[in-house]
Amino acid sequence: MKIFVDSSNLEEIKTASSWYLCEGVTTNPSSLGKLGKDPYKTVKAICQFIRGPVSMQVTSIDTDEMIREGKKIAQIAKNIVVKVASTRHGLNAIYELSKSGIKVNATNLFTPIQALVAARNGASYVSCWMGRSDDIYMDSIELVRDTKEIFQVYKVKTQIIAASIKNTRQIVEIAKVGVDIATIPFDVIEKMTQHPMTDMTFEGFLKDWKNNPALKNSSR
Questions:
Q1: Residue 33 belongs to a domain
Q2: What is d(CA 140, CA 165) in angstroms, rounded to the nearest whole number?
Q3: Which of 6, 9, 53, 54 would give a disulfide with 183, using CB separation of 3.0 to 4.6 Å?
Q4: Using CB atoms within 10 A of its CB, is residue 206 exposed (0-12), middle (13-18) or buried (19+)?
Q5: How many helices (H) and strands (E) in the chain?
Q6: 3-state SS assignment for residue 38
Q7: How confident is the model at residue 195 (pLDDT cuts 50, 70, 90)?
Q8: CA angle 103, 97, 2 (to 5 degrees)
Q9: What is the pLDDT of residue 215?
Q10: Quick one: which of 136, 170, 187 has its CA closest to 6?
Q11: Secondary structure class of 190 (helix, strand, coil)
Q12: Whole-number CA gyration radius for the chain
């Protein structure tokens, strides 16, 4: 399972990369907007730092505008992926952009059928939203599992991204399912790298070591 960082903050991305937990990045209009900076410059800087795929989403509603915006985004860098919401207009845009040789991440998916349709339209990635599925009493693990099973049956090459992850328990479950990619917010990545019991037991070991009389009396 590859790990992407779900963030538009370059410092967060650099930190996750230093832990070897960043094989790609997914941004979204909300996280880019909150930075208050030129989103194209921000994404370009991320693309220059990360060698893996970097997703940037179109914000248009009309198909033609989505295509036009998608082609503009595609010019940012070689490793850019155009993110398109899987609305009816979005599906047409996914098809046209993919036909032009542009890699597309079909996003805002809540059912395996949506994922299958997006894949049929040429999407390189499909982003199944987990946290938001759970928020509306859907089974997010089943969403990922069913999507993977369908793709395996029909030998669909589109990669499945587990997105909108809220906690480490979800990461364990999707890893067991065998999802291709998990795109994880930085605060959850931080939780992956530490555990209070690990810190507490380690501190106990160090304390016992320092309190050893033989070491205290040693000239070393």
A1: yes
A2: 10
A3: 6
A4: exposed
A5: 12, 8
A6: coil
A7: confident
A8: 20
A9: 81
A10: 187
A11: helix
A12: 21
In which band, very low, low, confident or very high, does the pLDDT at 220 lie, cut at 50, 70 and 90?
A: low
Which domain, by its residues, includes 102?
Answer: 2-194
**Which positions are annotated as active-site residues?**
83
Amino acid at 107: T
Segment holding 57, helix H or strand E: strand 54-57
For the domain that residue 101 is a member of, what is the CATH number?
A: 3.20.20.70
Residue type (1 letter), 120:
R
Q: Take residue 134 and report the two structure tokens written for it.
A: 């759970």
- Model pTM? 0.91
- For 66-76, write each residue's pLDDT tens digit: 999 999 999 99
Q: Is residue 79 part of a domain?
A: yes
Which segment of 10-19, 56-65, 124-133 scores lowest on mean pLDDT? 124-133
- Please check whether residue 210 lies inside any domain of the structure: no
Task: Tell me whether residue 218 is in a domain.
Answer: no
What is the rounded distance in angstroms from the CA atom of residue 20 to the CA atom of residue 16?
6
Q: Are strands 104-109 and 54-57 parallel, antiparallel or unpaired?
A: unpaired
- Angle between the 63-74 and 88-99 helix axes, to the nearest 10 degrees? 40
3-state class of 66 per DSSP?
Answer: helix
Under DSSP, the state recorded for 158 is P
Q: In the numeric block, which tokens belong to residue 161?
A: 């991204």
Identity (one letter) of the amino acid at 164?
Answer: S
Q: What is the per-residue pLDDT for 216?
A: 73
User: Coil, strand, or helix at residue 139?
Assistant: coil
